TrEMBL record:
Residues 4-226 form the ABC transporter domain. GO terms for molecular function: ATP binding; ATP hydrolysis activity. It comes from the Bacteria. This is ABC transporter ATP-binding protein. The keyword Nucleotide-binding applies. The keyword Zinc does not apply. The chain holds residues 2 to 227 of 312 of the full protein. Keywords: ATP-binding, Nucleotide-binding, Transport. The lineage of its organism: Bacteria, Pseudomonadati, Pseudomonadota, Gammaproteobacteria, Cellvibrionales.
Length: 226
């Protein structure tokens, strides 16, 4: 059973723009998978649909066999999403943002506190736990987004351009962190427009352009073609 299975996904925005023209995709458990494509290709739209923030026009999405429409609450438990834009309250304290998220997933208070500590330490944010989010640097905010997406220990983590606008040093440490999480068994999918990022992290890749998947292969084979 696939970690993510997308079939014939279509999106036509209210404006009439066909952002997705029937894409299909399967990602196996344990994979580290890249969705690579230029700006405007449809990457964020795809992630928006998977996270139920964007309404799809047609097609199906299953997460570990759970349909995001029919089995929403199970699918939600399996899934962690790191969107591109910071969407937490800048006035809340770092640890409160994470505790709220844990509450949303129904975690008991003690369990939640343990996980908050684990992820803040792993991501180098422990010293900032009592600080309001607005006082964090851009890179710290990015890491807070990752901690929040992981708080319920999802089996599938999807990140939308996780290192966009992040400096090279932080990018490398985020890569190391993601590799660790993947080695511990979490399936990871990230979107990127940097081939270098896909090459450094991922085993398999889908190339999306203008709302269509134009290639679906291993990174190894992709690099041999170039
Ligand atoms: P839906 O079909 O999912 O309801 P809409 O087409 O109504 O989506 O658009 C949602 C919002 O995104 C609107 O406020 C719209 O102005 C905005 N929007 C329109 N075009 C773009 C674009 N090219 N990129 C990002 N946002 C856009
Ligand atoms: P990517 O993440 O690959 O840059 P997107 O999924 O954001 O691509 O966008 C795919 C296409 O859909 C683009 O042409 C974009 O302008 C358009 N688009 C995105 N959001 C909206 C929206 N809310 N309303 C109308 N068009 C949109």
């Amino acid at each position: 059973i696939a970690a993510l299975s997308i079939r014939n996904l279509e999106k036509v925005y209210g404006s009439g723009h066909r952002a997705l023209k029937g894409i299909s995709l399967e990602v196996q458990p344990g994979d580290f998978y890249a969705v690579l494509g230029p700006n405007g290709a449809g990457k964020s739209t795809t992630i928006g649909i998977i996270s139920s923030l964007v309404r799809k026009t047609a097609g199906t999405v299953e997460i570990f066999g759970k349909d995001i429409d029919k089995d929403f609450s199970e699918a939600k438990q399996f899934l962690g999403i790191v969107p591109q834009e910071f969407n937490f309250s800048m006035f809340e304290k770092v640890e409160d943002i994470l505790l709220q998220q844990a509450g949303y997933y129904g975690l008991a208070r003690q369990d939640a506190k343990g996980r908050v500590e684990k992820y803040l330490k792993a991501l180098g944010l422990w010293d900032k736990r009592r600080s309001p989010a607005r006082t964090l640097s851009g890179g710290m905010k990015r890491r807070l987004m990752i901690a929040r997406a992981l708080i319920h220990d999802p089996k599938l983590l999807i990140l939308d351009e996780p290192t966009a606008g992040v400096d090279i040093e932080l990018r490398r440490s985020m890569w190391d962190f993601l590799r660790d999480i993947n080695e511990q068994g979490t399936t990871i999918i990230l979107t990127t427009h940097y081939l270098e990022e896909a090459e450094s992290l991922c085993r398999n890749v889908a190339i999306i352009d203008n709302g269509e998947i134009v290639q679906n292969t291993s990174i190894k084979k992709l690099l041999q073609q170039l």
